[in-house]
Design a protein that fits this description.
Helix content: 10-25%
Number of strands: 13
Radius of gyration: 17 Å
Strand content: 35-45%
Structural class: alpha+beta
Number of helices: 5
Distance between the termini: 36 Å
Order of helices and strands: EHEEEHEEEEHHHEEEEE
Shape: globular
Length: 226
């Protein structure tokens, strides 16, 4: 995979869309001025973090297998954190937490044609040495804060890119979930409901017990609070 490194960009995802790469690439920025999160949220991306967007092209990937892209991204992050002796937990569907605080988020933007995924643009932002805004201290954390020392960003980048080249299964993804059979909060724009998390299906739906009924939840419909 070709690697492109930038000092600063508005958003690595937006940069990749503008360039419309025909080959598979990984774009890495030292800083983003307008980083993007899920559901239209902004993503603070100060220098010291690792901000990577990959572009991959596919020929025969059915749309119903889209969650596999999420699996590969999240597990690559978790494996990288483990390499540096940090214990991660995945919060379905795309957040990686450490000690209950977010250390990485993932934004996936897929292109579809006739029931197949033709291209995926996957943005991942890992808090490495970057400072955390005081207003986010209760919900976000960095590798530096956890380990009590700055890390070699080049080493983190190298380990992460190696892990991104591997292929993972849903069993690898679920290995980083410690909240099955526990109560969770499902949030929509209108309300919140408490349910018991049971499992995650092959297509990425969250299976929950709500008032004695088993429901399959799409991450497009709700967000999860542990």
């Amino acid at each position: 995979m070709k690697i492109i490194e930038l000092k600063e960009v508005d958003s690595t995802n937006e940069y990749c869309k503008r360039q419309n790469f025909s080959e598979d690439v990984a774009v890495i920025a030292l800083r983003q001025t307008a980083g993007k999160g899920t559901k239209g949220r902004s993503f603070i991306s100060e220098e010291g973090g690792l901000y990577v967007t990959t572009v991959r092209h596919y020929k025969n990937l059915p749309a119903e297998n889209a969650f596999h892209i999420m699996i590969n991204s999240c597990v690559a992050v978790c494996r990288t954190l483990e390499y540096f002796n940090i214990t991660p937990v995945i919060r379905w569907a795309n957040d990686v937490l450490v000690n209950g605080k977010k250390i990485c988020g993932t934004l996936i933007e897929n292109t579809f044609s006739n029931g197949y995924i033709t291209r995926s643009i996957v943005g991942m932002g890992i808090n490495v040495n970057n400072g955390i805004s005081p207003k986010l201290k209760d919900i976000a954390v960095s590798m530096k804060e956890i380990l009590g020392k700055s890390l070699d960003l080049e080493e983190v980048k190298s380990v992460f890119l190696q892990n991104l080249e591997k292929n993972y299964e849903i069993s690898d993804y679920k290995r980083y979930i410690n909240w099955f059979n526990r109560q969770i909060i499902l949030k929509t724009d209108e309300n919140e409901r408490v349910a018991t998390a049971l499992d995650i299906s092959e297509n990425g739906r969250l299976l929950v017990d709500w008032c004695g009924n088993m429901l399959e939840i799409s991450s497009a419909e709700v967000s999860l609070r542990l």
